[in-house]
Design a protein that fits this description.
Elements (H helix, E strand, L loop, with lengths): L1 H35 L5 H19 L3 E3 L15 H25 L5 H16 L7 H34 L4 H32 L5 H25 L4 H6 L3 H26 L1 H16 L5 E3 L2 H18 L1 H10 L5 H21 L5 H14 L8 H32 L2
Antiparallel strand pairs: 1-2
Helix pairs in contact: 1-2, 1-3, 1-9, 1-10, 1-11, 1-12, 1-13, 1-14, 2-9, 2-11, 3-4, 3-10, 3-15, 4-15, 5-13, 5-14, 6-7, 6-9, 6-13, 9-13, 10-11, 13-14
């Protein structure tokens, strides 16, 4: 009985640590474009993320989670030794959390999904055997490092090129913005609502068909676009500010759009990525209480609240480092450029959800920011920063694996 409490207590502490890492690193990516483009201040971004990430995690974070995320390890091989799964999951949570702490401190935007996947692969390879790892699935995850930034970058390039052509390069950009931005609002709201329905509500158990999902997203997007149109029409030109910055009022219009995308992306992210922290935690609780390994573990509400709270604390205490990298150091962002990047990232996530490709929110958003930069020419991008980001991506899976192996042997030696 004492051992059970030790396992659950350690899992809760390490799960909170991992959720903190998600907040410090991954949520910072979702908010970085809004802060970097000055659509939101850092305090406003933390408030938006705190509310919507927490709601996403708690309301749509899932009643049930896979015992081992992404199906990369055959859990049935551990049926005779459930203790090993407990050690492995504790090691994975601590390893992924530690790597996220290091990366966040350095300002590297890395993938929290890949951190936990690397950690689980590491423990499984040494704790169960190399054959226990589904290497084909690991290969698909590695492929996503290349695919998701390229797809998001290409879409962001096209979106921002359309903004330049339809609005910014026209003789009267303000009137063109009033005309076209409601359509962009519709597109953004439709895409991000679809992300939320496909990735978030499926966890809650709401069975919505493909056609219903699109109709619901279209209806919500139309309402948001009409409200956006009302807000935009109330924005009056500021002649003084226009002299200093040619597109001042136009960018204010796009800033309205950025607030919509920031709230929606935070909810979708909270509903999806909280599982990286609470999935292994739920597995430990399930095995510690029953002594058996199931393919799925139920999630008590306190676990989701713990995950949501950890994410919020992580962003508030440490998120500024990664926000500075993605929002300010890769390329200079304005609300129109930031919007193009966020819409491209959301679109890529929708495509991936529909096709089942495992992608990283982080890689997608960084690729989108690069695409926006490329629309202005290669000289608009700081290639040294990009180089450091790419190196941190390549290191994430092996770093998670090595740390998990070390912690796994430690826990096996020390714990009851």
């Amino acid at each position: 009985m004492e051992a059970e409490y030790v396992y659950i207590t350690l899992a809760a502490i390490f799960g909170l640590f991992m959720a903190w890492g998600i907040g410090a690193n991954d949520v910072a990516n979702a908010m970085a474009t809004s802060v970097g483009s000055r659509a939101l201040t850092i305090k406003q971004a933390i408030l938006v993320a705190a509310i919507f990430e927490f709601l996403g995690a708690v309301l749509a974070g899932g009643a049930v989670t896979s015992t081992i995320r992404k199906g990369i390890v055959d859990a049935s091989l551990l049926s005779d030794t459930p203790q090993l799964l407990i050690y492995g999951m504790l090691a994975s949570l601590l390893a992924a959390g530690t790597w996220l702490l290091i990366a966040s401190k350095k300002g590297w935007p890395v993938s929290t999904t890949h951190s936990i996947v690397g950690a689980i692969v590491g423990f499984a390879a040494v704790g169960i055997g190399v054959n226990a790892v589904q290497w084909g699935k690991v290969g698909a995850i590695v492929m996503s490092w290349v695919v998701s930034p390229l797809v998001a970058g290409f879409i962001a390039f096209l979106i921002f090129a359309s903004v330049q052509r339809l609005i910014l390069s026209q003789p009267d950009p303000l009137s063109r913005a009033r005309l076209f931005v409601p359509f962009y609002i519709f597109l953004a709201a439709f895409t991000i609502t679809l992300v939320t329905i496909l990735k978030g509500l499926s966890h809650v158990g709401l069975e919505i068909s493909g056609l219903q999902s699109y109709l619901l997203a279209g209806g919500i997007a139309a309402v948001i676009a009409v409200l956006g149109k009302v807000v935009i029409n109330r924005i009056k030109p500021n002649p003084k500010a226009e002299k200093k910055q040619h597109f001042y009022t136009v960018e204010r219009i796009f800033a309205v759009l950025m607030v919509v995308t920031a709230c929606s992306m935070a909810f979708a992210h909270g509903s999806n990525d909280v599982a990286n922290a609470v999935g292994p935690l739920a597995a430990v609780i399930s095995v510690a209480q029953s002594g058996e390994i199931g393919a799925k573990s139920s999630l008590p509400m306190w676990v989701l609240i713990l995950g949501g709270a950890g994410i919020v604390i992580g962003l508030a205490t440490y998120g500024r480092h990664v926000i500075a990298t993605v929002g300010e150091k890769i390329t200079q962002l304005t609300p129109s450029r930031g919007f193009a990047a966020e819409l491209a990232a959301a679109t890529t996530i929708v495509i991936a959800s529909g096709t089942g490709i495992p992608i990283s929110t982080t890689h997608t958003l960084v690729g989108a920011v690069l695409g926006v930069g490329m629309a202005r020419g290669i000289e608009a991008i700081d290639l040294r920063v990009v180089g450091r980001i790419f190196v941190s991506w390549a290191v994430t899976v092996p770093a998670g694996a090595i740390l998990a192996i070390v912690f796994f042997f430690l826990f096996r030696a020390v714990l009851p």
